[in-house]
């Protein structure tokens, strides 16, 4: 049984796809397992004690050079240098009491793929039986300077992508038929902690890490609700880079110029000095876009420090800063878009974001089987939207503009305990438990502002004359999951999460009167609720490298009180709005074939009760507007697939120095409203859900150069629950299907790299969204053909 355990460990390591790696192995003394042998890992100063079967594991290691030292009784001390370079390492160590020279055996698994999936246990989390996806940024050939989402997320099935701007200031993606607005239907994190504006009251992400600083992007679908929170979409976690282990200092600089006045400067510094690992970057970008009134400028910085206080205790501190100012050209009507998509009919709209995010975490290893992580973070941030929100089919009326100003003050702390044990002899099971405490406060004010054209974010008068609110929120959660490894092939993973949520609103708004001055109305609201979420998943290894997986988990999404009193002529909110509940089920098959083919094919079903959506309606003055309300229950069912193959590796058996890879990413989704009292909605398609999404690409190159072509097709979709084809305001209507092609090329030689891309190769004219507020309202045109060139130096 001990050899079966070692084989399982070997297979798990061999097929790992994540960019944090593992050094593991089997230690023997005189042909018997060296139970209790001490294995040290330098320069990290970590230590492991061999289990009864002689196995040791060092997890979550960044690439670099390490030294393994093994000690056991009177045996000769064993030393070995190990290099981690896009690979996991497995050692078979034989200790003897003689002076004989030992032969070293190293097994490696090179990971050259862009996409993959997470292992059953990764760091301080459990992913067994879940639909997981990983994007390895180091292996992708794309326009990283602009955070081009179409290219970066090309291997993730079922994603609808909104294209806000040409600079990649904000990310807008939605999975399996959920609203893409600022990733609001995902729990969005960086290095494991929240980065959204307010995880309870306003889960939108105005900050997106520069892709040039990202090591990998982890995506876990609806089953992530048990470990990370209640969002239907699941989790997106940006794992940022760390300093290289075997160098005290390394420097990288990337300078990018492109179409429409685009310029990006990204510079990073990192390394390891004794027990200290550090990484920091600074980014500056600006551009004018291809439409008038579209200038933007952004500054971003980040610092990471982790220090091994002892062999068992490590402390990590991080700080993130981001600030940008963007002029927004506004939306267009259907007629204006058809006539000239490059025009702008708004010259006084501005948007400003300021982000300050700090985190502190402690990692402690009680033993190789038990470890704990305590992570806390604080956010001090704000965003201000200034301009004209009136219908886009009317000219700017002049005069004072509307200002919507938010301030976010959030605290969060989460502690996790992970323990491995043998339920069945030789079959390691894993238990995970955690506690999360969160306190958020959003200050929101709306009113008239300066009547000029510039970015003057001041209320006139001083007290906002539309509304002013405090939105405090409190969340406490306890969660647990357990992998029951029943045999060497089959595991079952149940889980549960207990939630307490308290959201409050305290402030005032001005009620518009028809024949008398507006009346100031004070308002207080409080909503406290407790509930439990449950789920269960299963994984079965059919054969070497082939896994069947399935999962069903409950989901929950609380209403956003801080959105109830926004005054917007294009949209209104139902005062009786309530929370949404439902569940997600998915299952599929994934794996590798002979190290040249990776695939993940799955089905999913998402049930959404009391879904909040938009209904196209009219008020008492016969004015058309969108009502945000609990429109109906809905169900989304679909098929997702990703297939990526290196054809040259298949043909030559891995003997070719070149790589010719092909991938296809296809999803088909049927999303309908069901069980509704609104006859106009019954059976209608859910908004923001293209029934077909298809992305495919080719990549050819070797270690120095790479050429990549990508084709994307997104089918026709609707922007509201009534499936309106057209409205004069352009807020509601169809989003026609579109096709886009991209081309990228790169060449790297020693310390020098040159990267180029042509986005929207065929210069397609299209749009991805209709906005009811900023940055519209109306149609937001997507970028035409653009050219970008990056020069990189690395030391």
UniProtKB/TrEMBL annotation:
UniProt feature coiled coil, ranges: none
Q: Where is the TonB-dependent receptor plug domain?
A: 132-231
The Gene Ontology CC terms held by the record are: cell outer membrane
| Taxonomic superkingdom | Bacteria
Q: Where in the cell is it found?
A: Cell outer membrane
Main subcellular localization, coarse class?
A: membrane
Where in the sequence is the signal peptide annotated? 1-18
The family database entries (PANTHER family) matched by this protein are listed as: FE(3+) DICITRATE TRANSPORT PROTEIN FECA, IRON III DICITRATE TRANSPORT PROTEIN FECA
Name of the protein in its database record: TonB-dependent receptor
Query: Which organism does this sequence originate in?
Result: Adhaeribacter aerolatus
Primary gene name: fecA_2
């Amino acid at each position: 049984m001990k050899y079966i355990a070692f084989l399982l460990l070997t297979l798990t390591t061999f097929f790992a796809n994540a960019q944090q790696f593992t050094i593991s192995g089997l230690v023997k003394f005189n042909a018997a397992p060296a139970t209790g042998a001490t294995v040290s890992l330098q320069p990290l100063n970590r230590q492991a004690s061999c289990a009864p079967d002689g196995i040791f594991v060092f997890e979550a290691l960044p690439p670099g050079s390490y030294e393994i030292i093994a000690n056991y009784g009177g045996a000769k001390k064993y030393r070995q240098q190990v290099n981690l370079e896009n690979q996991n390492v497995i050692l078979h160590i034989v200790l003897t009491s003689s002076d004989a020279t030992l032969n070293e055996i190293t097994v490696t698994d090179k990971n050259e793929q862009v996409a993959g999936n997470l292992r059953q246990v990764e760091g301080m989390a459990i992913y067994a039986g879940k639909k997981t996806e990983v994007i390895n940024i180091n292996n992708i050939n794309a326009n990283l300077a602009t955070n081009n989402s179409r290219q970066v997320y090309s291997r993730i099935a079922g994603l609808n992508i909104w294209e806000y701007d040409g600079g990649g200031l904000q990310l807008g993606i939605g999975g399996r038929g959920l609203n893409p607005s600022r990733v609001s239907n995902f729990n969005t994190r960086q290095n494991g902690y929240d980065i959204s504006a307010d995880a309870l009251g306003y889960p939108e992400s105005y900050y997106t890490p520069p892709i040039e600083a990202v090591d990998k992007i982890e995506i876990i679908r609806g089953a992530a609700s048990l470990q990370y929170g209640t969002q239907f979409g699941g989790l997106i976690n940006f794992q940022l880079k760390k300093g290289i282990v075997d160098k005290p200092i390394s420097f990288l600089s990337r300078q990018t110029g492109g179409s429409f006045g685009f310029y990006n400067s990204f510079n990073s510094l990192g390394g390891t000095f004794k027990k200290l690992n550090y990484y920091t970057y600074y980014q500056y970008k600006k551009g004018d876009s291809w439409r008038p009134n579209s200038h933007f400028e952004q500054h971003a910085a980040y610092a990471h420090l982790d220090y091994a206080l002892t062999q068992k205790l490590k402390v990590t501190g991080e700080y993130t800063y981001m600030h940008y100012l963007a002029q927004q050209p506004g939306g267009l009507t259907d007629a204006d878009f058809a006539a000239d998509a490059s025009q702008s009919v708004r010259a006084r709209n501005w948007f400003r974001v300021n982000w300050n995010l700090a985190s502190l975490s402690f990692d402690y290893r009680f033993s190789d089987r038990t470890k704990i992580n305590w992570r806390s973070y604080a956010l001090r941030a704000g965003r201000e939207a200034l301009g004209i929100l009136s219908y886009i089919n009317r000219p700017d009326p002049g005069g004072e503009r509307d200002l919507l100003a938010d301030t976010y003050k959030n605290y969060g702390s989460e502690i996790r305990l992970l323990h491995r044990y043998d339920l069945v002899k030789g079959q390691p099971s894993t238990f995970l438990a955690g506690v999360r405490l969160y306190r958020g406060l959003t200050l929101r004010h709306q009113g008239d502002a300066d009547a000029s054209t510039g970015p003057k974010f001041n209320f006139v008068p001083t007290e906002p004359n539309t509304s002013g609110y405090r939105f405090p929120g409190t969340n406490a959660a306890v969660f647990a999951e357990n992998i029951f490894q029943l045999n060497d092939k089959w595991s079952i993973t149940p889980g549960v999460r207990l939630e307490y949520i308290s959201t409050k609103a305290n402030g005032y708004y001005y009620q518009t009167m028809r024949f008398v001055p507006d009346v100031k109305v004070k308002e207080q609201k409080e909503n406290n609720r407790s509930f439990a979420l449950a789920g269960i998943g299963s994984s079965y290894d059919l054969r070497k490298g082939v896994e069947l997986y399935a999962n069903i988990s409950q989901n929950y999404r609380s209403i956003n009180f801080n959105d109830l009193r926004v005054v917007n002529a294009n949209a209104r909110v139902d005062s009786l709005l309530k929370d949404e509940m439902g569940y997600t089920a998915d299952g599929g098959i994934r794996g590798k074939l002979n190290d040249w083919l990776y695939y993940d094919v799955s089905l999913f079903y998402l049930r959404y009760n009391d879904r909040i959506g938009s209904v196209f309606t009219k008020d008492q003055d016969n004015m058309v507007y969108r009502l945000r309300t609990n429109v109906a229950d809905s169900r989304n069912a679909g098929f997702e697939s990703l297939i990526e193959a290196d054809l040259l590796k298949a043909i030559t058996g891995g003997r070719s120095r070149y790589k010719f890879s092909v991938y296809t990413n296809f999803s088909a989704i049927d999303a309908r409203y069901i069980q509704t009292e609104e006859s106009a909605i019954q059976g209608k398609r859910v908004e923001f859900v293209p029934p077909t999404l298809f992305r495919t690409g080719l990549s050819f190159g070797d270690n120095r150069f790479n050429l990549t072509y990508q084709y994307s097709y997104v089918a026709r979709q609707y922007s509201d629950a009534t499936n309106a084809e057209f409205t004069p305001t352009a807020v509601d209507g169809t989003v026609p299907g579109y096709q886009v092609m991209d081309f990228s090329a790169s060449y790297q030689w020693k310390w020098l790299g040159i990267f180029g891309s042509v986005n929207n190769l065929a210069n397609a004219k299209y749009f991805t969204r209709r906005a009811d507020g900023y940055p519209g309202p109306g149609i937001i045109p997507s970028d035409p053909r653009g050219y970008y060139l990056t020069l990189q130096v690395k030391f």
